[in-house]
Specification:
Elements (H helix, E strand, L loop, with lengths): L2 H15 L6 H8 L3 H13 L3 E3 L5 E3 L2 H6 L4 H18 L2 E8 L3 E8 L15 E3 L3 H9 L9 H9 L2 E4 L7 E6 L8 E7 L5 H18 L2
Helix pairs in contact: 2-3, 5-8, 6-7
Length: 219
């Protein structure tokens, strides 16, 4: 493994967590390298338009990342957007599309927020969470065969076809997610994030239907 490349990628991941930007010293301390090394790494990332400095010399992500990210899961995002918008309009809740990354985490690939709701849940696209927390991860784990010691919520999700979580990713936020039935290499989940779920079964049915329709489009 290239240590230099690893450190450069660590900087990008660190800047994702701090959208307001970081100083060079913050970056050096954050990835555990000398300030001179951090300076060289940042200059290289700047040359590729992956990060930038403002007039206060704070470093943040730059537009070059958009160009790199655009082709990633493009078909999935293109097909999912109308379904997420429809789900959001029907529930006045924030809808989400997540993908599994490796064995132990999920990434928020797309968020659609309601336009008319008095208040709604807001997440950042690209957010990474541990797979054992939140409805998205629980739904993806429920798609696997049962394992000894798994959470009761996973077994319940396997039975119902969707997972529900309460305050596991963010305080007071309810998550409802179903796995997208697709045989491709990407494991994905589609669902809702909301503050109240007075009719959990109805919302679950809507999520399952949207996930099923997305799976049919991906065939």
């Amino acid at each position: 493994m290239s240590k230099t490349l690893h450190n450069g990628l660590q900087i990008l991941e660190l800047l994702v967590q701090h959208p307001q930007g970081l100083s060079l010293t913050d970056i050096a301390e954050g990835i555990g390298v000398h300030r001179t090394v951090a300076h060289r790494l940042v200059r290289t990332l700047e040359a590729h338009q992956l990060c930038r400095r403002d007039r206060f010399k704070r470093i943040s992500l730059a537009a070059g990342l958009v160009r790199l990210a655009e082709p990633v899961e493009q078909d999935l995002r293109t097909l999912a957007r109308p379904l997420l918008e429809e789900l959001t309009d029907a529930t006045q809740a924030t809808s989400h599309l997540v993908v599994r990354e490796g064995r132990d985490r999920v990434r928020m690939l797309m968020i659609v927020e309601p336009r008319q709701a008095r208040m709604h849940v807001s997440f950042r696209a690209g957010q990474v969470d541990p797979i054992e927390r939140g409805s998205a991860g629980l739904a993806l784990l429920a798609a696997d065969p049962p394992v000894p010691g798994e959470r009761e919520e996973i077994a319940l999700a396997r039975k119902r076809g969707y997972a529900v979580s309460y305050g596991e990713i963010a305080s007071s936020v309810i998550g409802i997610t179903a796995v997208v039935p697709h045989h491709g290499s990407t494991q994905a989940g589609l669902g809702l994030s909301l503050f109240e779920a007075p009719d959990e079964e109805r919302l679950g049915a809507l999520v399952v239907d949207a996930a099923r329709r997305l799976g049919e489009l991906l065939r």
